[in-house]
Design brief:
Blueprint: H1 8-17, H2 23-40, H3 51-63, H4 68-87, H5 113-124, H6 136-150, H7 154-157, E1 162-163, E2 166-167, E3 177-181, E4 188-192, H8 195-202, H9 218-231, H10 243-257, H11 259-265, H12 275-280, H13 309-313
Antiparallel strand pairs: 1-2, 3-4
Length: 314
């Protein structure tokens, strides 16, 4: 039954109940709805969706000098709600001519060994204690070791658990073999930790059974992270997050063992090939550049070809 008068917020709550969304995804959608209604100047309803209105909103975001990535994210959030409402037959209009937002290709940046060593050393020198009693320097040491060794996403690394007798052996073996179900794909992935990393994780206190007991929310995590980057003399920014540790580890694996090994290290499906790793993760030093064509051939000159300067002067 068509319900074009349903408020966008009511439908958003219905949309979330039908799906197992991460809290970060919900927060992104909520921020988009607030921005959309702020631009409209009133509460939005499903019947507001139209190609023309969406295009005006995208242009508004561009004119407000939002980055192309932000514009695309806001656009995609609204399109997801719009398409879902259409599939449920709550509205009769389907998006057909909504402006696309092109993102510029950016190189995959990684840290050099010297930069990563500075990052790790600075993190280990943190001296405060978290409210749960965990020493911050110990936490960051174990966290960076685990992130670099395994190549796991943060959500997967922080999903590892402890038991009363130590690390859960179904997740981390005494030899450092890690088995985890990836939250993004739902696929089981096996990777490895150095034994020094296993010992660093075991040295952290058992807080609520978590192997990596960080007590704060996501926003506070990045506040701490940016302070460490600044202390190490490294740039901060969107592409300078912990994901860069994953890119750095994958690039080093590719340099030593090839791109296919790096793709396995990242937990990518064999069916996806190596293109995903090359496009989104590996630094330019990780794979062979295409060969150069022959250089310009300089013409060979002989004494007979050279002009007689004395004769020319006379």
């Amino acid at each position: 039954m068509s319900q074009p008068d349903m408020s966008l917020w009511d439908y958003y709550r219905r949309y979330c109940k039908q799906r197992d969304l991460a809290r970060s995804t919900e927060q992104h959608l909520e921020a988009t709805l607030r921005k959309f209604e702020e631009w409209m100047g009133r509460a939005a309803i499903l019947g507001d969706f139209s190609d023309d209105l969406m295009n005006q909103f995208v242009i508004h975001l561009r004119d407000q000098e939002y980055t192309p990535r932000t514009c695309k994210g806001r656009r995609n959030d609204l399109l997801a709600l719009w398409r879902s409402a259409f599939e449920e037959e709550l509205i009769d209009v389907f998006p057909r001519r909504v402006r696309r937002v092109k993102l510029p290709d950016l190189p995959n940046t990684t840290w050099t060994p010297t930069q990563y060593a500075a990052l790790h050393a600075t993190a280990r020198q943190e001296t405060i204690y978290f409210p749960n009693g965990v020493h911050s320097g110990q936490f960051w040491d174990a966290f960076l070791r685990g992130l670099k060794d395994t190549g796991l996403r943060i959500s997967d690394l922080c999903s590892l658990k402890q038991s009363k007798t130590g690390l859960r052996r179904d997740q981390i073996s005494p030899e450092g073999v890690v088995t985890v179900t990836q939250q993004k794909t739902g696929k089981i992935h096996t990777c490895r930790m150095h034994l020094e990393t296993v010992q660093a994780v075991l040295a952290l206190p058992d807080v609520n059974g978590r192997a990596y007991p960080f007590p704060y929310k996501r926003e506070s995590f990045y506040t701490h992270w940016h302070r460490i980057l600044k202390g190490a003399g490294l740039p901060t920014g969107r592409r300078e997050g912990p994901q860069k540790v994953r890119r750095t580890g994958a690039t080093e694996v590719a340099q030593e063992h090839g791109v296919e090994a790096a793709s396995r290290f990242l937990g990518h499906s064999p069916r996806s090939g190596t293109g995903l790793a090359v496009e989104h993760y590996l630094g330019p030093d990780a794979y062979m550049a295409p060969p150069l064509p022959p250089g310009v051939q300089e013409p060979k000159s002989s004494e007979a070809d050279r002009p007689d300067l004395d004769q020319a002067a006379g």
